[in-house]
Amino acid sequence: MRLGMMCSRSSLLRTRSPGPALRLVAGFVGLLLLPSAALAGAESDWVSSGGGAVRLVAGATAGGALDAGVEIRLQPGWKTYWRYPGDSGVPPRFDWSGSENLASVAVKWPAPHRFDDGGGSYSIGYKRDLVLPLVVTPKDPARKLALKLTLDFAVCEKICQPARAELALDVPAGGAAPSNPELVAAQASVPAQAALGAAGPTGIGRVQMTEDDGVPVLRIEARTAHAESADLFVEGPNEDWALPLPIRSAGPDGTTLFTVPIDGVPKGADIAKTPLRLTLVDGERAVEVEATPSR
């Protein structure tokens, strides 16, 4: 993937947080977006980007938390990135510091897809309109919630372009209108939490450290309904980790085998003692498993 020229893991990806230089590039390519006006309804104004548009949406409150989302519309042929963007790319960055009466925001991630960027490089993200679900907790549920988000992200067609959106949405105490269909669908597309070895048509049975032709690898055995298209994404506990994307093959007893070279591990870290987050995407099903490799 390219940012003007090439957006490499060793440069922009490892930097992660967009700095002044990246914001300057955004200005040159015309993607520095204007703030939207706050609304007292269930959705903010759309803010346009070079490859699409972004807005905030809010639904109902349950148990003191508000269902909300960041809705991103992409032009045909464009894409944006997942929380771990793969070999190259820019993950979205969320800044809620301008909000009022806000205690916390948790971002949920719909199941992503792998994209072949050529030259043996792969990125992870979305090539369709999407909503990133949010679980928003106010400090005082009896008061109005003023959400203000600065979103730094990237949209890509043939080249990758940085974008920034300033969004604002006022939500009355007790929540806004009932959740819209897009928000409901997005919540349903978030991978289900599952235990290692849990029963079901889609799941992960074993995560083992071994060797392949003398090279240390992770060997991950999965149950899938779509063995020829299922995919797996493996993340470490923080952004210092940059594990390669797995290689899929047929496993024993009808399982799907994913092999991950042990690379991109931070200096001094012991992968055998580190819980990894594994996201298995199997057609319309997806699960997320936390597992520490065995030997």
Automatic annotation (TrEMBL):
It comes from the Bacteria. Residues 62-169 form the Thiol:disulfide interchange protein DsbD N-terminal domain. Pfam families: DsbD_N (PF11412). This is Thiol:disulfide interchange protein DsbD N-terminal domain-containing protein. It comes from Ancylobacter crimeensis. The lineage of its organism: Bacteria, Pseudomonadati, Pseudomonadota, Alphaproteobacteria, Hyphomicrobiales.
